[in-house]
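Format notes (please read before filing issues)

Several people have asked whether sequences and structure tokens are stored in separate files. They are not. Every record keeps both together, in the order shown below: the sequence lines, then the token lines. Line labels are part of the format and must not be stripped during preprocessing.
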Amino acid sequence: MRRITLLSGLATAALLASAATVPTAAAAAPGVSGDAFTRAVAQLKAHSGAGLAADGQSFTLRQIATDADGTEHVRLNRYSDGLPVLGGDVVVHLGKGNAWRGASQSLAAAPQRAPKAKLSKAAAGRLALAASTATGRTVSGAQLVHDADQAGTALAYEVVVGGTYADGTPSELHVLVDAATGAVRDSWEGVQRDGTGNTFHSGSVTVGSTLSGSTYQLADATRGNHRTYDLNGGTSGTGTLVTNAANVFGDGTLANRQTAAADAAYGAQQTWDYYKNVHGRNGIRNDGVGAYSRVHYSTNYANAFWSDSCFCMTYGDGGSGWYPLTSLDVAGHEMSHGLTSNTAGLRYSGESGGLNEATSDIFGTLVEFYAANSKDPGDYLIGEKLRSSGVPLRYMDKPSKDGSSADCWSSRVGRLDVHYSSGVANHFFYLLAVGSGSSSYGNSPTCNGSTVTGIGNAKAGAIWYRALTTYMTSRTTYAGARTATLSAANDLYGAGSVEYNTVAAAWSAVSVN
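Then the structure lines:
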């Protein structure tokens, strides 16, 4: 989740001016020309029609990715009259010699310059409080923004409402309150919570540790100094770093508190290694810094969540009928929320929210396959070991088997809970990787009666990763995801290739045409 920074108009203008003249993020990216940000903004404005750049707009640098052939993909945040444009983020693609290769964004038209607010910040805060179902609600931040969607642009307050849900999960609900009418335009949860996994089934594994004096710490110096902490039933802070006199953590039983910590560390380790060895990514932010893990959150808490503000994963011990939530696929799932936040930033509501959740299901599944652990072998089930009953939370071969998820796209998908709208992308990925019909992993039908032959996890994962990190933006829809993955397949395998054609066929098979 992200924290809103409260800035006055002068402070915002100063920040933008600083960002425009000192592109430090560009300089930090290996192999990237230091003026990539300046060139990207210049090209965006030179192609104002395609880039949807207009008077009063400014940009800040978010991220730069450079391909082996020198092509640069410059991800920018957009501002209008000094205010953030939600949904206005854009990726500028520059070829050799600074050649314009287009821009990826979800805007349909240039953001309009909105009139002054009629509603006060305090009034917006009161309306936002009413939109939350959490207890102990408080307004923890608010700022004016331009909310840009397919219908146009409106001035709104983005209000962050803190609190706690009934199951103990902390809340940071972002509420968009129209600054003219007071209507709630949208809301999304900043704490991305899920429950998928079962830690003590990982068996005897190797985990990174550090000797400090005569004590071993569950701290992995080889993977960004990832550390694992025991909250001991608490719900805030980091708790206590897990240590032991011997270089052994846990005994495979839930009676030993360090068992959950060992498996959380193992899950984080396998996730780090997957992204490093498969995609060449050096940590969640690609900066070599490891997130940290917290176990034993609250009491009988049957969930887990990722938080951007602490850059950490948090796991509950479960409750009646549930096991602890620190397995391979949940670690991969939670850390992948961090990946999404630090790349496309898919908003956690509507179709983009479903794509956000599906991204975590997809990469959590691929981490499970990557680890090749005989105690928890790879499959296309989400949370198959979370419940003592053995019933999975979600199915990728036919998502509707859970009773709520969507197999096929329709106009109502964006109104579903994000864990259910994710079914469309999960189904797409299964068809892309495995194919339709019966296999050892399930029996996957298509929505259009077609037959799809899968291309395998490696290629399917490479396509989804490139689409996410290079082409998707904060409000990418399912139609936009089809375009993004086709662009990724074209980059990796060529237009008209088997891989490209299978991406197209798999999307059509879930009714995204």
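For reference, the curators noted about this record: Residues 257-279 form the longest helix (23 residues). The chain has 13 helices and 23 strands.
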